[in-house]
Each structure stands twice: as C-alpha cells, then as structure tokens.
Amino acid sequence: MSEYFATVAHGLESVAADELESLGAREVKPDFAGVGFSGDRRLLYRVNLWSRTIFRVLVPIAKFPSPNSDRLYQEVQKIDWEEYIKPYQTISVHCTGKNRQLNHTHFTALQVKNAIVDQQRDKFSQRSTVDVLDADLHINLHINGNHGILSLDSSGPSLHRRGYRPAVGKAPLKESLAAGLLHLAQWQGDRPFLDPLCGSGTLPLEATLKALNVAPGLFRETFALMKWSDFDESLWKELVREAEASCREDLQISIGGCDHNSEAIAQANYNAKKCGVDSHIRLWQADLSQVEPTGDNGLIVCNPPYGERLGNVEELGDLYQQLGDILKQRFKGWTAFIFTGNKALSKRIGLRTSQRIPLYNGALPCTLLKYELY
C-alpha cells in the first residue's frame, strides 16, 4: 500500500473523496484543495484513468523541514535521485504554497531543480534538462509552513484537460468542475438532462460521458506515470481494456443543451463529435425564451454568466429573471441547479432554493443553487 494525494479545486474535496472511495481508495482524508488516500499501483492507474473531478495524483516521496532555500536544497540533495530519473532524461518542477523565506514559487522550484541536477553532475558529470511541457519526470513541491512535501506527479498535464474539447467559448467551465456540479446534482443518467445556457457544451458533454460510463482518461494518450521506470504497461493496458468494455452503448433518456449563440453551439457540436457522443446528445441554437421541457421530469444544470467575464451585470439581471420565470412556468416536476458567482443576480431568479452549496470557480467564490420545481 502506498500513500497518494489528489489535488482538486477548493470546494470539491468531499466530491473527490466520494469518487476516490468508489474507485477503491482506502484511508480517504479530505484536505484543503486535495484528498489524501492510500492504495496499490492498480488504484493509482485507475484514479488517473477514471477520475472526473481530480486535477493530479501525487505520490509523496519525502517530507522535510524547509524554513529557507538553503535547507530546502540540502534536504532535496539527500534523496537518491538515480532511483527516479537518469541524467539523460528531462524534468519539470512545480511548486505550491509558501512561507516567510520561500515566498516565490518559481524561485522555490528552481532550488529543487538545482539540488537534483547538481547531484547528477557530481555523480555522472551529466545532468537532466528542464522540459516544462513533456518532461520524463514531473516533480511537485508543496510548502506548508516550515515544512515541504516532495512528490512525483503521476498525471502530468491536469486531468481536467480531457483532450476532447479543442473548441471552447469565452468563459468555459473546467471539465472537472462541471463533473463536480453533476455529482452534487446527483446526476446518474436516469432522467432527462438539459442545460438551457450551454455555451460550448461542457455540462451536457460531461453528463453524457458519465451516463455512458466513459472513463475520461480514455481521451488522453499519455500520463506522466507512463515514463516512470516501474511503469507496468501490461497492467495499464488491462485497465484500459476494462474501461473500454464498461462503456454503455445506448441511453434511454434525452440529454441536451441549447444556447442563443450560434458560434457556441457550433463549438459544442464539434466537441460532441470529437468525444464520440454526438449521436447521444442534442445541441441546438435557441433563445432562452424558446426552451421547453423534454418530459414530465428531469434535471437542469446550468452556469449562466455572472458578470465576471461575460456580459454586463445590470443586463444579466433580466436574464436571471427570465430563467426563473421559465423554470417556474414550464418545468414543473423538474429539479434545477444553477451555478453562479453573483449573489445579487441569483436573487433575480425569484425562486426559493432548497439547497445552497458553496463552491469556487478558480479563485472566485460561487454557489450552486438547487430548486425543486413544483
């Protein structure tokens, strides 16, 4: 059994913990912007392949005092780096957190890199070079107070970048956040789903992939762990085959999204085709005033603009009021979840919430509002 740490968006820690437990993780412990857990190599591979809400899976290899740059350098040099990387391979170092002396993440990461390559140069007269985008070994250092936790990053590029979404709108949700909203909305693919303000389609696409039981990692060709010296290719291929075999071929419910912007809908349809779900989802151009229910009950999840990046706040008030009116008048029997970062705008919806879930979109405090429509 090994210890791991999954990094997640702040606010989704409990969601990621649920997901990890469903994948077989043990000793699951939510923390700030992450979740600690334990398991074997099979679990490490499964989490990278299947997680919908996690950014990266880290494998801690050392914890040590790091009050300043000199002590950090000394502690990193104590590690036998030959076990993890050869001088002809490339590295990248990413740092999070800070303390009084180590208060610039780029400088802190540079100290870690220097300690590693100086050890290599002393041993082999040769040293690794840095490759930020496609390194052979991705290293993560987290500074917490006067201590540092050094980890190997098993994922590489963030897992939220599925690879199916080259076309995005002006203010897209991260795929991982969209998946988190669906989890909180208890989406199981067992009732009609609609996003009446879908933009480039992230929410309905993630809803379709979850309903079809498609592992998000199937869209990616590489993960950082594939370059590790102990990578078990046969185990990985076994897990990929299992994931491919578990995909559902048909849906018994409708999943759809619409938007008034024709360019956004073109992007959404392109993305749907890119991830192979275009035959399972309907994405169409329509003004909010034209939206109608597709059944007597179902689930609405949407992320209307809230003035941070798109639209004028005063003008958006009319949109929120219209959204509330349409939900009340046309969608009796449905449940709606609205994700917003503007409290004043949310009041314009004019409906009583049955639940308010605090979340973040990046650094912006937001709320997921639940409405039972009777």
Automatic annotation (TrEMBL):
The keyword DNA repair does not apply. SUPFAM superfamilies: S-adenosyl-L-methionine-dependent methyltransferases. Keywords: Methyltransferase, RNA-binding, Transferase. SMART domains: THUMP. Residues 43-154 form the THUMP domain. This is THUMP domain-containing protein. It comes from Limnospira platensis NIES-46. The lineage of its organism: Bacteria, Bacillati, Cyanobacteriota, Cyanophyceae, Oscillatoriophycideae.
